[in-house]
Amino acid sequence: MKDDKKKMTVTPGEAVGTVAAQSIGEPSTQMILRTFHSAGIASVVTTKGLPRIIELVDARKRPKFPMMQIYMEKGIANKYEKVREIWRKLEDVKVSNIIRQFEEDFRTGSMVLDLDKEKLSLYEITPKFIVGKLSKMETITADVDGDAVKVKVKKKESIKAMRTTFVHVLNASIMGVPGINKALIQQNEDDTFYITTSGSNMERVMEIDGVDKWRIYCNDPFEMARVYGVEASRNLLANELIGTIKEEGLTVSFRHIGLLADAMTYTGAIRSAGRHGIAGDKDSVFARAAYEETVKHFINASVFGEKDPLRGVAENILIGKQIGLGTGKVKLAVKKEDIKKLKSK
Known about the structure:
Number of helices: 15
Shape: elongated
Order of helices and strands: HHHEHEEEHHEEHEEEHEHHHHHHH
Distance between the termini: 52 Å
Structural class: alpha+beta
Strand order of the largest sheet: 8-9-1-10
Largest sheet: 4 strands, antiparallel
CATH class of the largest domain: Mainly Alpha
Helix content: 40-55%
Number of strands: 10
């Protein structure tokens, strides 16, 4: 325990920001960019490796592959049928997902949807249920035609207008939560079940009965901040960064990751580490210029008459001045009486 405590101790005056930047940046450049493609295996696609780290550090407004892990309340977590009922409410099923093919007839302004029986059985829906959903659209009428659904435009207009209407029909949502493209039921080691989704919509998922509202995990920091607050978002950023690095077989101390996550969120909002966030908001003109867009920063500083306090590391290195960290943090004072004694000797 004492050895672990020694490893965690930071020497007074340590340049923790610079050490953290180097500790994260060096292994990140070593990462191997790997793409996984598992044919025939049901899985949720996520961004991994260096692209994911860039996505997090740049504070992208929306991840390329948003996902959620949804856990159930204790009473139903080990009951597959109950979990399956919740699963049916999650996946955003569109008309295009449950048909084998469709035929358009622009002369009569109608479209026939050939339904896929296997998909109807999987989602436990009927042609009448689909007609009921489509009938809510004001521009069309829908009827059951044997094993198919016939859609007809109320007002025959141009071919372009009818084609646009038919596209809206194909993209119409039949059931599920908007934004969740795919959902999979998975099992833990303790025989409890949880659901992994491709796509996210935490606000709507929290409204579903049986879902544990305090155990919904989402890989989107902005959505997490909107629903659970900035502290939860800070923890998400740190966990996602450390998890992504570990997946590549690399090790970085959590202290460095935690410091970066704190710096990105301490203002109460998520900011990127680049020129549009932390680096661009520094008080020092030299520090901003050292990062990117050097000429622009110097011109703006001269136009507005900015002063540089020279308190940071980068700006003092730039002008050749000793930085206020490490041995440079220590300042010595000598009494006048002592100086006189030294001179007299």
